[in-house]
Amino acid sequence: MIAVNSLFGRKTKDRLMTALMAAATALVLLPLGMIFFHIVRMGIGSINLDFFIHIPQPTGEAGGGIANGMVGSFLLIVIASLIGLPIGILGAIYLADYGGGPTSTVIRFSADVLAGIPSIITGMVVYALLVVPLHGFSALAGAVALALIMIPIVLRTTEEQLKMVPITLREASLALGVPLWRTSLKVTLRSAMTGVMTGILLAIARIAGETAPLLFTALGNQFWSRKLTQPIAALPLQIFSFAIAPYEDWHRLAWGGALLLVVVMFGLSLAARYFGRIKH
Amino acid sequence: MPEEQSPSWKLEKGIKGDFVFKGLTALFAFSILAILLLMVAEMVLASLPAIRKFGWSFIFDRQWDAVQESFGALAYIWGSVVSSILALLLAAPLSIGTALFVTEIAPKRIGSAIAALVELLAAIPSVIYGLWGILVMAPWLQRTVEPFLIKHFGFLPFFQGAPYGVSMLAAIFIMTIMVVPIITSIAKEVLLAVPQSQKEAAIALGATRWEMLRIAVLPYGKSGIMGAVILGFGRVIGETMAVTMVIGNTPQISLSLLNPAYTMPSVIANEFAEASSKLHSAALMEIGLILLVVTLIINILARFLLWGVSRGPAGGIK
Q1: Nearest CA of chain B to the CA of A251: how many Å?
Q2: Tell me, what's the ipTM?
């Protein structure tokens, strides 16, 4: 009788814990679902042609768009990629093909630690290293800050992918007399290219939404910026300043910007998944 | 495993391309280490004026006055520590429960669908959480949740004061929402690394599913899950945009969660670009330095715990 009771007790406990885990999952998905719902509902209403081709109106005037922010973000991402991708990818080739031993572990470890540093600190460092000496906020400084965030992500994902390329492939290439450096680029990197692309896209998705490192580097700009040595508008910065301002019209723009950003990021991660799948 | 794949070939002498290419890749690889060291050095250097002027009292003083040039970071440290710890206390059980549900309980297709959704949501930028927080969540807290808390739990020191909406409570909620996907996805990886045989052994001994999770899965994944939670702590304590938008940005030390507060990253975000003097910006740099040191320690700790997982423990049940 006792045994039956205790079995009953154990089964009840099992059901209770299962229910709790299901409840935790529901509780996690609920706010996330609501965020998504609000972004779509509020965002769709504010997206129209003006939204894409105009710059923000002065406070109090209706209408306006975020064209300068979109162009600014695009430029920042392109420049950051130009700086960050070579460092990340070539660094990964070193780790996968030339490294080994404690030095590689140190570099891997530094990359992991670097990836965990709050992005606002990256912004402060770039401010001290670039903005102060160059006497002004600039698009260039913003791009450098984004590149610093990008590098560890690209390095680690690329290395993982390079390591998955069978060593026999490299040996075959070397046996044919191809120098190691050409083997690294033309055989190893090329074989791993789809996986590397996944990492690159994820890194771009990450920096596309970064706001904190741009606060003291790119700064933001109400208007179009003509030079890379001037402050430049960026979509996340616009969302921030519009959201904390007390104007309905700006809130509308912020929601639209958020929807745009989310769509871009989901597009990038879908593309990343697509590249991730080709490999198999 | 990949680790053992380190190259065994020797470079043939005389191939110039190899020499140059190796040098180039090494340069870039080592630049990662250089960047890390440079960041730490630059933060120390830039905060020196404040360190010299205030010494340890910087950490224990709550006065922050840009006009008098008297700076103490206690209110910001308090805000950061309290909000991060409370957010983790909420997020850790939710994340672990979700990770268990996704890996062990839900049917495979549903589980992986939920996992994919959670992963997608981990990619949403902070500023968008902040936008939702300030325009949707904070007003809701102000109208519904905070009056309820004041009415029914107002006798507790934690729920006293007026319902502002933007508050410590709002920051804790938004941090929780943001960090759950991160902890969940790492914890999920950890749980997936638990060997099937381990679970089967528990089931074979007659364990119910929960008992199997408790005696076979959770102990095995303990250090990895700890690592995930600690990594989550590193994330929330450095969280800037969303928190800045909902915490109210008032440097006060109050027990009540309904009052506005301020965190270290938020004060940097709000004041750094317009710092009024050299000392002001040095003081902000020092706050950044404290944040940097804390996150470095947290990350190193978490990495050690998580690296242990990927290697896997040697024996059976620990």
Answers
A1: 8
A2: 0.93
